[in-house]
Amino acid sequence: MTAPIEAPLITGIAEEHQPAGSSAPGWPLVLYFHHVHPGVDHYTAVGPEDFERGLERVLEDFAPYDPADLFAGPDGGARRPDRPTVLITFDDGYRDNFTLAAPILDRLGVRALFFVCTGLLGRRSPRPREDHLTWTECDRLADDGHLIAAHTRTHPHLDRIPREQARDEVAGSLEDIAHRYGPRAARLFAYPYGGIPRDDVLPDDVLAFGTVRSPALPWTHAPRAVRRTYLPSGRTGTWDGLVRHWRARWDAGRTTGAAAPPGVRPDRLPDAPEGDS
After folding, report:
1. pTM for this prediction
2. How many CB atoms sit inside 10 A of residue 7's CB?
3. In this predicted model, what pLDDT tens digit does every residue of 24-70 receive, in sequence order?
4. Lowest-pLDDT range of 43-57, 210-224, 256-270
């Protein structure tokens, strides 16, 4: 019998935010970032040097998963890879994603998925947390092979607002994306704060991404709550161990054909702390 793979526990991080759990074994590892900026204090914000060093380490064990493969499966959905791959994602649509992250992605040959708040695009500020991409910058990212997708219009807690308001936020952002980038891009979504409403507010054909708080289920079992994880900011000494753990889980899943654990429901999640944006 194969010994269980022990997850590295990172001290100082709450249990629901521990990053060791990757996507379901055999599916792409999905990493999420908010900022690549030296002046932002956030658990998924890293400076440019750490971002490049971290991606280089991840790419030693995982090939890039092209966002276009999210539509390359036999049924028009996501293609399940036959080797360890990583999908890089960004949330909210901050300008440093374009000015600082994109050149690094280009040097490393990685195409990423950018979940943007369509109602906040174009807002500029000297404060990085309030400085957003413009539509023109999104267009340039798309022209370079990256994918732009929806993250609501104004970034509310979808699980804490009335259902109709949540549906309007989701539908509005998907419409904005479809108008600019076509209906295929509007089949992808990420929940602000990782908060998944108990009442489904998404169209039937949308693949939706959660955060590290979503359970690590196969995408076919939880297409509304794909788990993503992260390289914890300020903990670069843990990154090598995390990558080795993620790779070991992927390899184990290929040999065991890991399926969804019984009794796990993706809508049974703890409340998101205010920092889980």
Report:
1. 0.91
2. 15
3. 888 999 999 999 999 999 999 999 999 999 999 999 999 999 999 99
4. 256-270
Query: Residue 97 is encoded by which pair of tokens?
Result: 């994603």
The DSSP string of the chain is -PPP-PPPPPTTS-GGG-----SSTTS-EEEEESEE-TT---TTEE-HHHHHHHHHHHHHH-EE--GGGGG-STTSSPPPPSS-EEEEEEEE-BTHIIIIIHHHHHHHT---EEEE-TTTTT---SSGGG-B--HHHHHHHHHTT-EEEE--SS---TTTS-HHHHHHHHHHHHHHHHHHH-TTGGGEEE-GGG---SS--S-TT-EEE--TTS----TTT-TT-B--B---TT-GGGHHHHHHHHHHHHHHHHHHT--PPTT--TT--PPPPTT--
